[in-house]
Structure formats: C-alpha cells, structure tokens
Amino acid sequence: MKLPAESTADVTELLASAGYISNDRISTALSLASRMQKPLLVEGQPGSGKTSLAKAVAAATGAELIRLQCYRGLEVEHTIYEWDYMRQFLRIRVEGELGDETDPDRLEDSIFTEGYLLERPILRALRRGSNAVLLIDELDRAGEDFEAFLLEVLDEYQVTVPELGTIRAEEPPLVVITSNRTRKIGDALKRRCLYCYLDQPTAERELEIVRSAVPELDATVAEQLVSFMQSIRYQENLLRTPGISETLDWAGALAELHVASLDADVVSRTLSTILKEPEDLDQLDEAAVEELTAAISGDGESAG
Questions:
Q1: Which terminus of the chain, N or C, has fewer Cβ atoms within 10 Å?
Q2: Is 99 left (phi over 0), alpha (psi -120 to 50) or beta?
Q3: CA 153 – CA 159 distance, rounded (Å)
Q4: pLDDT, the chain, mean
Q5: Which residues of 1-23 are buried (b: 16+ CB within 10 A; e: fewer)?
C-alpha cells in the first residue's frame, strides 16, 4: 500500500486529517515503509499512540483496518484461516441422509473450498492487499514461534492453504507492528522492518494533540493539563507513567465537567483518570498535588 502523499509534510497532513498529530520522524518512517513496501515496527510505552497511528492511516486513506491482537498462547492457525467445521459437518450429514453414493474424495474436495473458508486477519489482509492496513498489535505478548512464522509472511507476503494452494498479495498491505517492549523482538524480524520509537511527546506536540482531540476543552485548562502531565512524568517511583491516552482521557473528563481552571481540588478528584495504580495515587498525596498545581497555575496564567 502506497500512501497518497509525496513528502514527509504531506504524510503529516494526511495523518492530521484523521486526527493524528505526527512529527517529522514518525511521518518519515511511515512514508518510507509505504514506498519501500516494508513493515513498520513501532515501539514505545503503552499509551504513546502506536495503535492510533495505524488507525489514522486507515481512516485517512479509506483502507480497511485489519487488526490482529496478539496474546500469550496465540496459535498461528488462528491468525491465517480456519475451516467452517460446523457447516462442513452439516454438508456431510445431509449427503448421508439423502443416501447419495457420493465418492468420499469428491465430497472432501467439495467441502474444502472457498465457501467453507473462514478468513483470519493475515489471510484477509493479503487478499485485500493495497486496500488494507494490517495492524499486528502488541507482538511482544505473543510467543517466539508466532514471531518466527511472521518472517515468512513478511518476506513474501504470502501464505499457503494446503487445500487451496499458495495465496499471495498482488500488492502488499501496509503492515504496522507494535510492541510495548515487554520482551525483546528478535533481530530476524527487526531486519525485515523499518523502525520507529514513539517517546513521550514534547509539551508543544501534546498540547496540539489535546486541542485536536478535545477542542471543547478550555484553552487555559488545556495548557495547565499538559504542564501537569509533563511534570508528573518526571515523578520518581511511579509504577506506571501516564501516556498520551491518559492525557486525552483526562482532557475529556475535564471537558465533561466544564472545568475553567485546574486547581488542586479538581486534580485530586480526577487524578484516577491518569494514575491507575493505588500506589501511585498514594504517592501523589495532597501536598504533592498542591505543589504541582501551584506550578502549572502559574504557567497557565502566563500563557493566557
């Protein structure tokens, strides 16, 4: 799949049309992956916008987003295809009840056809080719055997269904693979991919993301929120550092509450929107919240 964009700036604009605020590094990696027809491996902390990137590409181009969510114990067969065994069984049963002297080989050939094939994400993406974005989400959750299987798929953009033969994409889909780095992705797969690491956003980019996603939020509150998020990410001993997704959750909550200023009371009442571990909530006690809020209130007033 080749993006309808000629330059990095065009890619940034294309993503912005789907509500994704990119930067030169992300747009360049995506543009090259599209032009070179190579998968893009996107790593970063949870909530940094990895999955959203693939969704934005699909939304901006009108391509079908085909998502393969990885998990521990994922079976390779469940990612390619399965046969509709219930319908096959019913066909055999009907043939038997009708008393037809059907040749077993002919019956077997008739039930292992396209009509009984259930597409799973990888086969579906290969068949749709350039009209699809294949999102292989959180690959680090799957086992190394599945990762090894992907090597063949990403090399040739093809799979084999024994009863039907080899199915190959005429034009490969855009493949986006994400990882939270809970385990190291193998070098063999990395060699087949282009790479992009999504770090925590700068204050400027985070504010732009908030304004784009939650335009109804008061402008001063948006600035205070981003200042708070930028500060809290440097807090020591947090079990889970909040990412962009938490920023947007908090922005949405504040907009729903029609907050006009981010004071210590509002922060304390809504802190669980961004901190989702009891230990982290305990660590940011009332004094810590007041200190952080006092700092951002000064930022917000000067920005306004």
A1: C
A2: left
A3: 6
A4: 90
A5: bebebeebeebbebbbeeebbbb
The domain spans of the chain are: 8-72+119-198, 81-115, 203-298
Positive or negative torsion for Cα 94, 100, 103, 109: negative
The string of pLDDT tens digits covering residues 55-110 is: 999 999 999 999 999 999 999 988 999 998 888 888 777 776 665 556 666 777 77
Give the model's pLDDT for residue 301: 43
CA distance 106 to 111: 9
What gap in Å lies between CA 117 and CA 115, rounded to an integer?
A: 6
Q: What is the C-alpha separation between 272 and 259, in angstroms, rounded?
A: 16
Residue 300, SS3?
Answer: helix
Under 8 Å CB-to-CB from 94, ≥6 apart: which residues?
A: none
Using CA atoms, how far apart are residues 158 and 170, in angstroms rounded to an integer?
Answer: 10
Say what the pLDDT of residue 49 is: 92
* H/E run at residue 152: helix 144-156
Q: How far apart are CA 176 and CA 109, in angstroms?
A: 36
Look at residues 219, 226, 227 and name the one whose alpha carbon lies nearest to residue 260.
219
Question: Which CATH number, 3.30.1380.20, 3.30.365.10, 3.40.50.300, 3.40.190.10, labels domain 8-72+119-198?
Answer: 3.40.50.300
Tell me which amino acid residue 176 is: V
